[in-house]
């Protein structure tokens, strides 16, 4: 009987043969995910996600970096059947009852572990799909028939470290893997204002304008050091959890690839739904 390591090695070799690196290069996305209710709603944001992904070939698998999986060290989900995590409160019962029953992909998890150099990637058996992942995938891929893995965010590491880790994932795009970073560039829940349902505070709009300009100008180094961009950064990005997924997506941008901004709108005063497509 083959050992576990032999089985994983055989599976990785089979994946490499089936999904050659010189194949079609998948685009990559950063999605401003906002409220988990987007999982169930048909609104301007979910329609924007669908429109931008309408021309994407069906992925062999999806890799998501979600703002809602913060860890010490870096982990990738490696189970066959990830659970749907309802990591929120105060929403209608139908949201807590919602499921996203996509399969996991232990082979892809192993390939991620092999691909990344300079960081130890743990194979996780206990997490699943948090709402940063499934609230985006459910409207866009409702059949839940594409394998999905999540990569965690080591919250102790700085922006540049996450950007460099993201670069190493680029080869997966040539294997049919759709990579999605899910968060919000401007994200301050303490300052949410129901009276500003479609508006942003001045500091939110300033930070959004600055980051948009840097994204379009490919100035990734400045984006990694976001705290130094403006005095508004301290209020617009009080913690980096929702911001770091952007860096994973931008790290994938090739020399000949443009970045497109969509869903560029503020919400509840202190959140921006700004999303980015690379490739």
TrEMBL record:
The keyword Zinc applies. InterPro entries: Extradiol_dOase_DODA (IPR014436), Xdiol_dOase_suB (IPR004183). Gene3D superfamilies: LigB-like (3.40.830.10). Residues 42-259 form the Extradiol ring-cleavage dioxygenase class III enzyme subunit B domain. Belongs to the DODA-type extradiol aromatic ring-opening dioxygenase family. PANTHER family: 4,5-DOPA DIOXYGENASE EXTRADIOL-LIKE PROTEIN (PTHR30096:SF0). This is Extradiol ring-cleavage dioxygenase class III enzyme subunit B domain-containing protein. The lineage of its organism: Bacteria, Pseudomonadati, Planctomycetota, Planctomycetia, Pirellulales.
């Amino acid at each position: 009987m083959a050992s576990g390591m032999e089985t994983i090695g055989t599976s990785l070799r089979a994946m490499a043969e089936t999904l050659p690196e010189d194949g079609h290069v998948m685009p990559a996305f950063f999605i401003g995910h906002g409220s988990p209710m987007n999982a169930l709603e048909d609104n301007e944001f979910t329609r924007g996600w669908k429109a931008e992904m309408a021309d994407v070939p069906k992925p062999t698998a999806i890799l998501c970096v979600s703002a809602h999986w913060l860890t010490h060290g870096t982990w990738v989900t490696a189970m066959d059947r990830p659970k749907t995590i309802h990591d929120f409160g105060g929403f209608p019962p139908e949201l807590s009852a919602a499921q996203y029953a996509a399969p996991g992909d232990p082979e892809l998890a192993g390939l991620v572990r092999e691909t990344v150099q300079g960081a130890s990637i743990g194979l996780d058996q206990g997490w699943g799909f948090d709402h940063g992942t499934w609230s985006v995938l459910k409207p866009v891929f409702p059949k839940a028939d594409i394998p999905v893995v999540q990569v965690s965010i080591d919250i102790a590491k700085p922006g540049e470290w996450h950007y460099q880790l993201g670069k190493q994932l680029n080869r997966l795009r040539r294997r049919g893997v759709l990579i999605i970073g899910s968060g919000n560039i401007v994200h301050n829940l303490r300052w949410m204002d129901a009276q500003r349902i479609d508006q942003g505070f001045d500091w939110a709009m300033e930070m959004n304008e600055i980051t948009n300009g840097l994204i379009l100008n490919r100035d990734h180094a400045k984006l990694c050091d976001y705290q130094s961009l403006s005095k508004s950064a301290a209020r617009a990005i009080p913690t980096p959890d929702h911001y770091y997924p952007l860096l994973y997506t931008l790290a994938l941008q090739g020399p000949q690839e443009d970045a497109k901004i969509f869903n560029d709108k503020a919400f509840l005063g202190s959140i921006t739904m700004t999303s980015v497509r690379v490739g």
